Amino acid sequence: MSEQQDFNRTVIEEFRANGGRVGGRLADVDLVLVTHTGARTGRKLTTPLGHVVDGDDLVVVAANRGSANHPSWYHNLVANPDVTVEVGAATYPAKAIVATGAERSRLWDKIAALKPFLLDFQEKAGAREIPIVVLRRA
Q: SUPFAM superfamilies, from UniProt (predicted)?
């Protein structure tokens, strides 16, 4: 198991044990757990992600810390958009929708104002436009 996978497993366990709260360096991060289906493997995977609220939707950003590549969870959501969301103590089915056009621009402006470090990630990512994914309750 990679260091990142081990870290994620610990975060997931703590999140579920504490009604959606975690400590340490993620104590002040609004987290959501997204259970998705692997695009190649078909396996169920759960990924902890930071999110912002937009009306009734949760919004996540596929920044991948400014890497030139999208994170693997993003590819999985594109291939299999039916997901399960855990936020706080609530769990529900959702649809992952990649924001485009004016909607993406609106969300990017909102999220970047709340999380300005994303501007640095976009600069590092170069030509890769960082995707924004809306998690809409099914």
A: FMN-binding split barrel (SSF50475)
